[in-house]
């Protein structure tokens, strides 16, 4: 069990691929302990090459180096309705009571044609990707190829992580295969500028304290820190230092719900006060949008009523999106109304509200 106050431990995931049962069991125990403690762990020894990680991160930086007018040509809110493309700075508020977040993003997913049943039936985050034109990004074909290669390999890793999670819950290794079949996953390129020195510390976030909406998130960090995980035992925020080649893995609300709250979907946030630009790439594995999530075997005692009613993957994820984006839109409307009334919103007023 990780000790109170410890950052998420780094586990050697190569033990999953080895033929030694003792090594595999050791990995399963390590993952189980992390899921029970804080719902976070880090992995090395996976199958995603560090060269591909680095190349994807380089493209992350190249995209956000474009000027706002160029990025806005692929704005997700004006070019499509299926959550692909560029997201403006300050579009979200995940932590209630804070200011709109200092991050910009770019959403990528599986290439789903407009004839695919998922697109036709307007399923969760399902449709073709929205790429910059070659006049905006001359090497866009390499950007596409790198992004889709990286996305595919991380999604494959997520499915392996699910096999380990099944074993931690004393289920068959392939228990989650039906849920993972036809799964929707979303990759998000993220850029966090450093917070201005005069910004109100208690209100300004790169991304506010939140739990993820889906099942498993796999995060690649660059060299600049800022990610923090909340430790319920010590009631303190723990820094997650970037480790070359490692992925940060955390459980989302769907897995917590599935396990009847046995496993933890933990609070985490980003506060970038480094004076440098921070970049990261999370891949959110949601699962088959039509799959119904209900209490897992072994997670409720005989005769005990589950804490959560059944819910589809799509319903669960859409509820999370509606909350966080709706919160930011409300803040902007309220701010504009106050400005038009001659009152500029000050940080202290928001803090006291």
UniProtKB/TrEMBL annotation:
SUPFAM superfamilies: Clavaminate synthase-like (SSF51197)
Biological process, per Gene Ontology: small molecule biosynthetic process
The Fe2OG dioxygenase domain, residue ranges: 183-287
Pfam families registered for this protein in UniProt: 2OG-FeII_Oxy, DIOX_N
UniProt keyword terms in alphabetical order: Iron, Metal-binding, Oxidoreductase
Domain of life: Eukaryota
UniProt GO MF annotations: metal ion binding; oxidoreductase activity
Family statement drawn from the similarity comment of this UniProt entry: Belongs to the iron/ascorbate-dependent oxidoreductase family.
PANTHER family on file: 2-OXOGLUTARATE (2OG) AND FE(II)-DEPENDENT OXYGENASE SUPERFAMILY PROTEIN-RELATED
Name by which UniProt lists this protein: Clavaminate synthase-like protein
């Amino acid at each position: 069990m990780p000790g109170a106050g410890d950052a998420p431990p780094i586990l050697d995931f190569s033990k999953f691929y080895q033929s030694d049962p003792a090594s595999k069991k050791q990995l399963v125990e390590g993952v189980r302990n992390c899921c029970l403690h804080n719902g976070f762990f880090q992995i090395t020894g996976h199958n995603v090459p560090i060269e591909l990680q680095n190349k994807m991160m380089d493209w992350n930086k190249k995209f956000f180096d474009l000027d706002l007018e160029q990025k806005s040509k692929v704005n997700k809110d004006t070019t499509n309705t299926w959550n692909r493309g560029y997201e403006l700075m300050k579009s979200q508020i995940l932590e209630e009571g804070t200011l709109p977040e200092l991050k910009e993003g770019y959403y990528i997913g599986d290439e789903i044609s407009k004839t695919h049943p998922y697109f036709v039936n307007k399923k969760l985050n399902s449709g073709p990707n929205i790429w910059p034109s070659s006049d905006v990004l001359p090497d866009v074909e390499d950007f596409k190829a790198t992004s889709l290669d990286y996305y595919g390999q991380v999604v494959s890793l997520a499915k392996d992580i699910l096999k380990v999670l099944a074993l931690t819950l004393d289920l068959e290794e392939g228990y989650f295969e039906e849920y993972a079949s036809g799964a929707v996953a979303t990759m998000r390129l993220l850029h966090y500028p450093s917070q201005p020195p005069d910004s109100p510390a208690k209100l300004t976030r790169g991304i506010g304290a939140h739990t993820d909406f889906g099942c498993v998130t796999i995060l690649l960090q660059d060299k600049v820190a800022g990610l923090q995980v909340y430790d319920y035992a010590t009631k303190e925020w723990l820094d997650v230092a970037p480790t070359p080649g490692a992925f940060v893995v955390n459980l989302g609300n769907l897995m917590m719900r599935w396990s009847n709250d046995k496993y933890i979907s933990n609070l985490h946030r980003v506060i970038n006060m480094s004076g440098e630009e921070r970049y990261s790439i999370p891949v959110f594995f949601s699962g088959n949008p039509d799959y119904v999530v209900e209490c897992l075997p072994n997670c409720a005692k005989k005769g005990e009523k589950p804490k959560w009613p059944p819910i589809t993957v799509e319903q669960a994820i859409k509820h999370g999106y509606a909350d966080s984006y709706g919160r930011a839109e409300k803040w902007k409307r309220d701010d504009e109304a106050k400005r038009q009334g001659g009152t500029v919103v000050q940080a202290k007023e928001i803090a006291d509200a």
